[in-house]
Specification:
Layout (H helix, E strand, L loop, with lengths): L1 E8 L3 H8 L2 H8 L3 E5 L14 E7 L3 E8 L1 E6 L2 E6 L6 H4 L2 E10 L5 E10 L3 H23 L14
Antiparallel strand pairs: 1-8, 2-3, 3-4, 5-6, 6-7, 7-8
Length: about 160
């Protein structure tokens, strides 16, 4: 099963690419619906690396979803910059799912980016029960990304935003 988005963001592609490497963006685009917390004693890194990072998540900061690892890699293909997360769940609902999460960005006119965000998940019969919640979360992500993109560092409407 899968959920996916195709969005036009009001920021240049290099700004969107940089934002996707920022753990605080992952936290911001799902909050308050899904609240992520770093499970590392030192907290979230400044930038995602290809080293797996342990996180936990909860619905509205109250109902635990479990723990997983954000395990990213990046590559370019056919002019698109692609970020892929193949982290594995270690507890809770995350441990019951196998995921493949990809986000791809390409320029979409001056100062704009086309973002494709696709989560494929396998959870057996439980997948049918999880799909509506994941779909709602992806719709929330779309709203938040569209609202936040102009504020990301270097975006044309807020060039000095940090």
């Amino acid at each position: 099963m899968h959920v996916q988005l195709k969005l036009r963001l009001a920021c240049p592609v290099d700004v969107a690419t940089d934002a996707l490497r920022d753990p605080q963006v992952m936290v911001a685009v799902t909050k308050p619906l899904v609240v992520y917390r770093s499970e590392s004693p030192s907290g979230f890194p400044d930038r995602w690396t290809e080293e797996a990072h342990p996180v936990s998540a909860s619905i509205l900061g109250v109902l635990p979803l479990g723990s997983t690892h954000v395990d990213l890699d990046w590559h370019e293909r056919d002019g698109a910059w692609i970020q892929r997360d193949t982290g594995r769940g270690t507890s809770g609902q995350f441990a019951r799912m196998r995921i493949n999460h990809r986000m791809a960005v390409v320029p979409d006119g001056p100062g704009h980016t086309l973002l494709r965000d696709r989560l494929e998940f396998h959870a057996g019969p439980l997948g049918l029960l999880l799909w509506p919640g994941l779909w709602a979360t992806w719709q929330w992500r779309a709203l938040r990304m569209k609202a936040l993109a102009p504020t990301w560092r270097g975006a044309p409407t807020h060039p000095k935003h940090v």
